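Query structure, 106 tokens:
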């Protein structure tokens, strides 16, 4: 299996996807409080941290509180709970992006 699409690299941004976060509510709790950010997938990261992220198409729009929960900084969720939360949020976020034409087939 070719895994280059998972390889972390220095931040090379897909700005349109990142900027769109401000136009949507949190894909988990539906809050729209000005803290919505694109949360990158930690599950697929082969090493991550400051400046190293998976590709920008592997994001979910989450508020600060939900992002902290998914990243394990708060709420004490199990690995399975964090995975389920991020996966559902990813699907919801992606459905909005396709619906609104942010992502489209060329």
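Result returned for the query:
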């Amino acid at each position: 299996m070719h895994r280059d699409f998972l390889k972390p690299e220095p931040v090379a941004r897909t700005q349109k996807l990142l900027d769109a976060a401000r136009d949507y509510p949190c894909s988990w709790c539906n809050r729209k409080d000005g803290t919505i950010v694109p949360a990158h997938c930690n599950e697929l990261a082969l090493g991550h941290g400051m400046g190293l992220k998976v590709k920008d198409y592997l994001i979910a729009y989450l508020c600060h509180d939900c992002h902290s929960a998914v990243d394990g900084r708060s709420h004490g969720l199990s690995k399975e709970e964090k995975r389920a939360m991020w996966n559902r949020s990813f699907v919801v976020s992606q459905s909005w992006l396709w619906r609104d034409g942010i992502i489209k087939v060329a």
